[in-house]
């Protein structure tokens, strides 16, 4: 498309809210009216990806003319679904994507106040900039966003005065009539509600965004603006995993499933301890004048036990994929155990060091309650980000050494690069854990050492 054609089509699409520029040439001017929340799209996209560094599938609510959409789409490996309520805005956004050759963007016309968000699928994060104060029930929109994603980047207004507030559905709101002089900058509803600050945070929390980080805030007597990052429980756990290298993700399976796995583990262990079964997969060490101590059953997926199919439940791969940020396949299975009063500690180590951080993780399904008293997992936060050739004992001694206690059914996720270990089990309580390694199928992994 040459400059003359770009000029012609940009003219046909007037009036523009943000204007249109391409390769340094201004083809259309924007609104004469200032926007309080105006932010350079590149800056917003940068802040968005800093908040959600592993995000690849992104939902944008209120695409307007596609300025933020385009900035998001410039991140390699991403796909963007942008929703816009006004047809004329959508046409301009489509034109912007066409001129810039953005092929990883899908734009749809949609009213977010009536849309069934479940039909959209799942997203790594949601961008909602300049929209929340244009709807009648902003708390409902936040709940809809939480249904499809564990993270939201929210840029919005809130009402700064206590005068004229009413209570609706438990929230303090200011009724506002949409009277912006440019219809394309208004919401689809004429009468909308602005939350006050306390109600905005309550609405985020009630939607399930349990971790809220304020990136920017400007207050005034009435119209205030704020930029926050909200993370649901999983989103907060993913952030901790990426920063620390490990996190207790809580239970994934129902109690009856955990009971079946535990019964299967007891059966497998008894084959060695009671029936003398010997195999290269049954890792053990000798103790003078005592029976050998079993500490690992490797290749768990190849053992003959009724519960084997539970190892391939989709919930586990879906959880691992969320933490790694890519499709995954299971690459190793094991039952790790610490016999009461006999088990030694596990030396500090890295499972692997020849892979990039956040690409391969272990999911440990806890079959027993574990703490320092019976040799729970311990790790050094952030050690997964250190170079490949670190001195593990030095990192261990430098600490901090953080225990990861768990309850029956919890799933602990750790990066295979994490420097970790565990103490002995002098207690009278078992510690049994099913460990499954997950990796992106595109990664070539050498076999684990025996």
Automatic annotation (TrEMBL):
Keyword list, A-Z: Dioxygenase, Methyltransferase, Oxidoreductase, Transferase
User: What GO MF annotations does this protein's record show?
Assistant: 2-oxoglutarate-dependent dioxygenase activity; iron ion binding; methyltransferase activity
Q: Which InterPro entries match?
A: Methyltranfer_dom, Phytyl_CoA_dOase-like, SAM-dependent_MTases_sf
Report the residue ranges that make up the Methyltransferase domain in this protein. Answer: 56-159
Q: What's a BP term from Gene Ontology annotated to this protein? A: methylation
Q: Quick check: keyword Methyltransferase in the entry?
A: yes
Q: State the signal peptide span.
A: none
Q: Name one Pfam family in it.
A: PhyH
Query: Which residues lie in coiled coils?
Result: none
Q: Which residues cross the membrane?
A: none
Q: Does the keyword Membrane apply?
A: no
Stated name of the protein: Class I SAM-dependent methyltransferase/phytanoyl-CoA dioxygenase family protein
Q: List the taxonomic lineage.
A: Bacteria, Bacillati, Actinomycetota, Actinomycetes, Micromonosporales
């Amino acid at each position: 498309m040459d400059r003359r054609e770009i000029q012609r089509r940009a003219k046909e699409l007037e009036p523009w809210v943000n204007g249109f520029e391409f390769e340094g040439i201004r083809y259309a001017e924007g609104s004469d009216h200032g926007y309080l929340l105006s932010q350079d799209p590149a800056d917003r996209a940068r802040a968005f990806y800093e908040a959600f560094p592993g995000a690849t599938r992104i939902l944008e609510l209120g695409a307007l003319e596609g300025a933020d959409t385009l900035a998001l789409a410039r991140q390699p490996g991403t796909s963007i679904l942008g929703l816009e309520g006004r047809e004329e805005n959508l046409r301009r956004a489509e034109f912007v994507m066409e001129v810039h050759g953005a092929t990883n963007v899908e734009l749809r016309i949609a009213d977010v106040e009536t849309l069934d968000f479940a039909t959209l699928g799942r997203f790594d994060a949601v961008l909602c900039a300049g929209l929340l104060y244009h709807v009648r029930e902003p708390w409902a929109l936040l709940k809809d966003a939480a249904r499809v994603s564990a993270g939201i980047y929210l840029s919005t207004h809130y009402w700064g005065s206590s005068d004229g507030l009413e209570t609706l559905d438990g929230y303090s709101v200011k009724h506002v009539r949409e009277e912006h002089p440019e219809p394309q900058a208004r919401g689809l509803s004429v009468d909308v509600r602005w939350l006050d600050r306390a109600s905005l945070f309550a609405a985020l929390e009630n939607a399930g965004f349990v971790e809220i980080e304020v990136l920017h805030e400007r207050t005034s007597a009435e119209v205030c603006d704020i930029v926050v990052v909200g993370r649901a429980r999983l989103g907060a756990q993913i952030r901790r995993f990426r920063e620390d290298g490990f996190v207790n993700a809580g239970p994934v399976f129902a109690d009856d499933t955990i009971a079946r796995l535990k019964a299967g583990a007891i059966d497998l262990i008894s084959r060695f301890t009671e029936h003398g079964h010997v195999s290269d997969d049954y890792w053990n060490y000798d103790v003078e004048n005592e029976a050998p101590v079993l500490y690992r059953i490797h290749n768990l997926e190849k053992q003959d036990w009724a519960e084997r199919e539970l190892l391939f439940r989709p919930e586990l791969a879906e959880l691992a994929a969320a933490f790694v940020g890519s499709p995954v396949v299971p690459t190793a299975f094991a039952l790790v155990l610490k016999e009461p009063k006999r088990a030694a500690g596990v030396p500090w180590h890295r499972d692997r060091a020849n892979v990039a951080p956040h690409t391969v993780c272990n999911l440990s399904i806890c079959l027993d309650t574990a703490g320092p008293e019976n040799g729970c997992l311990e790790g050094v936060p952030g050690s997964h980000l250190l170079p490949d050739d670190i001195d593990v004992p030095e990192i261990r001694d430098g600490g901090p050494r953080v225990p990861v206690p768990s309850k029956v059914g919890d799933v602990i996720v750790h990066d295979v690069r994490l420097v970790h270990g565990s103490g002995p089990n002098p207690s009278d309580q078992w510690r049994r854990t099913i460990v499954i390694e997950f990796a992106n199928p595109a990664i070539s992994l050498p076999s684990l050492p025996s």
